# Entry
Amino acid sequence: MQFSKRSYVLPASPIRKLEPYLEEALSRGVKVYPLHIGQPDVETPKGYFEALKAYNGKVLSYGRSQGELKLIDKIVEYYNNIKIPLERKDVLITNGGSEALHYAMLIVCDPGDEVIIPEPFYPSYAAFIASALGNIVPITTKAEDGFHLPAKDEIAKLITSRTKAILISNPGNPTGIVYSREELESLADIAIQNNLIIIADEVYREFVYMDSPYTSLGHIDRIRDRVVIVDSISKRYSACGARIGCLVSKNEEFMSLALKYCQSRGCPPLLEQLGAAALYDTPISYIRKVNKEYRERRDILFEGLKSIPGVICKQPDGAFYIMAKLPVLDAEKFVIWMLQDFALDDETISAAPGEGFYATPGLGKSEIRMSYALQKEDLKKAVRILAEALSVYPG
Amino acid sequence: MQFSKRSYVLPASPIRKLEPYLEEALSRGVKVYPLHIGQPDVETPKGYFEALKAYNGKVLSYGRSQGELKLIDKIVEYYNNIKIPLERKDVLITNGGSEALHYAMLIVCDPGDEVIIPEPFYPSYAAFIASALGNIVPITTKAEDGFHLPAKDEIAKLITSRTKAILISNPGNPTGIVYSREELESLADIAIQNNLIIIADEVYREFVYMDSPYTSLGHIDRIRDRVVIVDSISKRYSACGARIGCLVSKNEEFMSLALKYCQSRGCPPLLEQLGAAALYDTPISYIRKVNKEYRERRDILFEGLKSIPGVICKQPDGAFYIMAKLPVLDAEKFVIWMLQDFALDDETISAAPGEGFYATPGLGKSEIRMSYALQKEDLKKAVRILAEALSVYPG
# Structure
């Protein structure tokens, strides 16, 4: 049998694909620090679990395709507080930010259409675009430039008659970039001049470690009908397992098309939405405490990596990842070797090989993405393990 | 801005699209019996809620992309008990049966590829196929033939070089058809002769009201590598709001492609999977009791509809819907009229207009799908309301 071409093109997740090696290492009794995945170890606010426990319905019934009003109202309030005015109709609840991104790509791309994305990027973008039969046109960004965007003219050169959208992650996974107001205004210019949609994956919005204010694409009023924001409770409230995200847009046509996709799958999970609604009542002090903690973790991992000979990386300003270039030819082989053949005091680390974060062939082969969503002591150990592994790696 | 063609083609759900009229009627204080949606009012087994409450983790973390092993093991055991031998690798947990169907269509269809489906069919099939840029080739079935399939030769005539799959719902939504072993063997012959996949949506498997045994496509051993079963806890355990379903297949290539889609969206919701795992421990007496209840409901709705002049329908053998032809030209207008302008003692009903259940233009315009997932007394009232509405309808 021959299956669809898109399904063969669709990349396996570089974040998930080494998990069998990790599971095998664990089964041998090796302790593995999981730096491959952005899984916060911060406690989920108790309100989440309390809301689930408080549910006393007898029948776990379908909810609304748009999502539960209780949650939508909380999200509208949240956005109004950060000066992005919304109404209920501007929000659709999704199965995580992932479903929001998948639907956005299906809505944007006819086969052969192009989406401009700064690389390195979150690898699932490539899967969602492959699913929609679109093509990625990468803007290559580099650690030595702080992963900032090139000048507007350089980006404009990438536009073709097939360009439909620009997709950015801000703060950026995997780079930790936080785009400046000027960079976002340049993207806004390009979007207006070329009649494009901009999709902004802002799930790491609370994880910014600079003193200057964070600018969301939703803050640029002149493109309010061109912006689709993808959001999620996963990172903000350390609730990745809930799978609750949303699509936010003032573009009514986009939202009416998105609603049809949402109707086709019934509704998002009901109880998880009640839990999510409760999370939006979490005091701001929780977010501040988490932000401070992550800033300290970032410093530990970044300073640690800088001290390892041959490792090149840039201090991230947001999110909780570092994209690091290692003194190895093939970072995937190196990570597999760390899981299969290496241990320091019966401990090792996992990381995500960098190649899957790029669309340009050949880039990222020596790189890994490391998450610092781990305890500080664990991050210190992880750095020691990586340094030792690099010093004895035979590859 | 121009969005993708598939998004405009994608049909709005005929089940969901009248909900604004329903909400408006409710806001006027009218009681509406919701016959438009397959939302069981049977209690969800308490084990579900207990499993959620028993969760004492501090961090709601990502799960496995394949789904939690605890749930997969329960599903494997369930299938082994119904004589469909499976291993863990043959099961992928999905966000409801819907995500399973969406992924299956994305895996099966290149643009322009064809999927053969008996019509009337569950309307989301059309959305998932539109999303994949495939085309539906309908096998038209009729109430007067009991919605049974035509002879094998007739179906074989529909095969073209673009045919990739046959998709059936068994028991059938919206028809209540339960396919005979002979019908399934005919489909198996066609699949083998033409190198096709058969996707069997069997989410209503426990809702069969005949005395003869139910045959799953998974029971036909000679096509074991050609069958993909879509399953869900939604109807079986009255847990539609959990959004837990699965893909089941012995076709290793299909499953390896499906895993990439599953990886791209992270994982299904974690706690809902723990609840779902507990549901599989529900005693068989629950299923038997529910089955008996639904059989009685079916009898009430079917006998009631038969007694209304001009209404044509067939006694369903499974699922919990009746597809009924009404003595009106445009059933959608009639349903909207019932919600907007009609009430009997301040009560009315909603139903799903039939046209969206067909791919052949013009079919189903006089039909509605009614769900009998309601209390018997409510169904009796619904029949009275429908009879009265038809007798005074000015349309």
Summary: The domain at 5-43+285-392 of chain B is CATH 3.90.1150.10 (Aspartate Aminotransferase, domain 1).
